[in-house]
Amino acid sequence: MRDVIVIGAGGGGPIVAKELAARGLDVLLLEAGPRHADPERQWSHFENDASHYLRWGPADRAKPAWLRELPHNGAIAQLSGVGGTTQHYLGNSPRAMPGAFAGYAGADADAYDTAHRFPFAYHELVPYYEWVEHTLPVQTAPMGTKEAVFFRGAERLGLPLNTTKDITRDSFRPQENAILQPGGNAGRTTDADRLVWPQATGCTLCGFCAQGCYQPRQAPANLKAKRSTDNSYVPMALTAGRWQPGGRDVTLIADAFVTAIGAAPQGGETVARHVTWRVGATGERVTEEAKVIVLAGGATESPRLWLNSNLPNPNDWVGRGYTDHYFDGVIGEFDEDTGSSKGPVSAARADFPGRGWLLHAGFQPAFTALLYGFSDGGIAGFYGNGHPDTAGADTTGRLIGNRFADSMSGIGRLLLVGAITDDDVEANNRVTLSQAYPPDEHGAIPKVFFDHRHRSARTVANREFLTRKAVELVRAAGARAVHRLNMPPLILHTMSTMRMGLDAADSVCDPNGAARAVRHLYIADNSVLANSLGGPNPTLTTQAVATRTAETIFTLEFGGDPWVGHEAPVSSIDPIVTQAVIDQEPIWRTRG
Amino acid sequence: MLTRRDFLAYCGGLTAASAAVWALPDVLGSRGWWSAAYAQDTDLVLDTYNGLAAMLWPGDDAYSLAQGESNDKPGAIAANAGHHAMVALDGLVPEPHTALSTSYGTVPLSGSVASAINTVALAVNPAAAGGAFLSPFARLPFPDKAGVWRTLEEDTRQVSDRDPTHSLGVLQFVFGVLPALVQFFAFSEIDVFDPATRTLRRRPVGWDHCGYLGTRLVPVEGWDEFQGYYQGRTEVEG
């Protein structure tokens, strides 16, 4: 019997695995998708090619992706594989807005999702933020051409600069990113021969964050620029016995899709006992027992697995309350170079507590073209699909025809600003098991539904406010034309489908991340977040909460002592970790 | 003339068929219920997606000239985006998994989707019944093509707006995202990518159109874009 089995090696699971392995526990980490142990040879900077290895699907690229039912316009952007969705995340690592937490008494206290606040105070999470920020590490983003254009717009709007980690007022700033700052030749040359570690360290400003980061070439996994968990927490977990006295290396099994959590009645309670997974390559089913099971499959798969396992759902909140930040965005066209496809994809932001924030991002041509067609607002100039408001932009809806051709004629003269909304927890936005399609090899498939034309008044008002601000900022920066995308659900920031809460009537987990209905079962991915955080990117907060949950498991389930606030964290780029990774990487590459 | 009511009934039937095909593939196959998908003439289906590609990103090709919205540069037709969208639709949905089946094939959607597009095209403009192309949709003027999409998208959405539990499922999803998919392919490397060597045979049409990477065939490993830190701040205060 294992001490702990963690289901899912994405943004949250590896945090629990690494922390508990560092305490000497026997931890098994299971991942449904592939392990890319040699990304320099497995990945590329081609946009369509990347969509075949970074996807929600099996390790074998020749097989189709795993199906999910999405019964409306939109897209779900989640990945399988070690690293999960952090493989293509942008590394943005802001803290949540304090107003999203219990006990907040600021002047804008009523501006948030007051019915679904976190079940503890913001200051209680700060030590865990600091632990994760040091471990990843999180650093201030550098500036290039596109950031200079964005900052110019923010300055002209009169926004002040935020110089702290905390978000307490309307302001702008360089992103705090889980991306190593450029060093050596990085950021200073386009010569590939000079962009090799250790001559180049950290971010080479290549612009391909969303396609998996393997820069700089020849760097050990833990020194790749972007701190996706496959580059940070997973290497630490796999070498925990080598850098932490008393630590124990985690066992990682990829291509292992968990199909059931086994539980049994005991003393009037339901108790988690074991986990069953399917080996993708062979179809074999394997079962292992554990004292504690940690569910971290993501905000879509965690409720799917719960429901497929027939675990108790007494208040019917498993899968409910899905939040996604109700994305929108604008694209400005300039007469000057904006450097839009160069540098970290997102290195600048503007925050509006109680509303959400503005994402500055630059992408490559195919994804930029996709965004012009990804709309819920009809076709610009022809119909608005019931949602024609431009929010002050010149056009809205899909851009097509010669107007699209004109706009795409200069990828280096565009500026994309996303409107990332503080959206409400709403019971109707949810994951259920599909009735339309039969089960796949892993059981009933998930159906993801967002009632996006009937979202709460606060959510809609926040989105319109932010989109208007985005238009104003882009115009202030000098755009000659601005287009509103008016997106359908882009389910990319996936949150709160297994939410923690104070009220047992509308939450699945208690304030410790423990499932209320099943003993010895914890949840440690984005699904456990109580709400949409006030808008900020969810990964850092998920990781801070997962660290807190790991500490809870160690103290309550194994009788150990807490460590956050009592010890100094080891950074994932510490030389002792690097040496351990260098020693182990040849073995990882051989085994896959 | 196809009425709105007829159209919704038609889409509902397609949706039901597309859902049912996973449950009863053998039965459906034997009865020919799925013939709309499987029996579509390949050239007609491709012609339909070419008509869509030209609508989204016109160029100097015959489809663009016929629709009355064109220009003097290569567009989505030159990038073969219609073909790649058709292939993508046919690879979207896995075949049903059964205890007896080890197949990892997929259910072809492109035929049924093309059928819906062309059916609505004839309703929007009956003159599309004859003309230069195989696909009625491809024969339409540019504004009429947008009108077809309006019908496909708005009418299916309005059903869901009135009753969120009543969804037209896969069709609503497909009509929603298909334009974005075509535009993605049109500006990607897909048409000139050699999967064996993972290199490009030549520069993609979209890259040349938008001035991406100058004349390079290989994306960069990094840019000389570093301009320091805003106000010289390399870290926040705490």
Provide structural commentary.
By secondary structure, chain A is an alpha/beta fold. The two termini of chain A are 25 Å apart. Chain A has 13 helices and 22 strands. The longest helix of chain A has 21 residues, at 457-477. Chain A is 23% helix and 18% strand. Helix content of chain B is 53%, strand content 3%. In chain B, strand 3 (193-194) and strand 4 (199-200) form a beta hairpin. At the A-B interface, helix 3, strand 4, helix 5, helix 9 and helix 10 of A face helix 1, strand 1, helix 9, helix 10 and helix 11 of B.
Short description:
With 592 residues, chain A is α/β, with parallel strands linked by helices. Chain A is 23% helix and 18% strand. Chain A contains 13 helices and 22 strands.
Order of helices and strands of chain B: HHHHHHEEHHHHEEH
Pair of chains with the largest interface and how many residues each contributes? A-B, 101 and 84 residues
Query: How many helices of chain A does DSSP assign?
Result: 13
Radius of gyration of chain B (CA) equals 21 Å
Parts with pLDDT < 50 across at least 5 consecutive residues of chain B? 16-39
Structural class of chain A: alpha/beta
Tell me the quaternary state: heterodimer
The CA-CA distance between the termini of chain A, in Å, is 25 Å
Kindly name the structural category of chain B. Answer: mainly alpha
Helix fraction of chain A, binned, reads 10-25%
* Broad shape of chain B: globular
Query: Whole-number radius of gyration of chain A?
Result: 23 Å
**Mean pLDDT figure of chain A:** 97
Which consecutive residue ranges of chain A, at least 5 long each, have pLDDT under 50? none
Largest sheet of chain B: 2 strands, antiparallel
| SS elements, strand count of chain B | 4
Q: Tell me the fraction of residues in β-strands of chain A, as a range.
A: 15-25%
First-last Cα distance of chain B: 68 Å
Number of discrete helical segments of chain B: 11
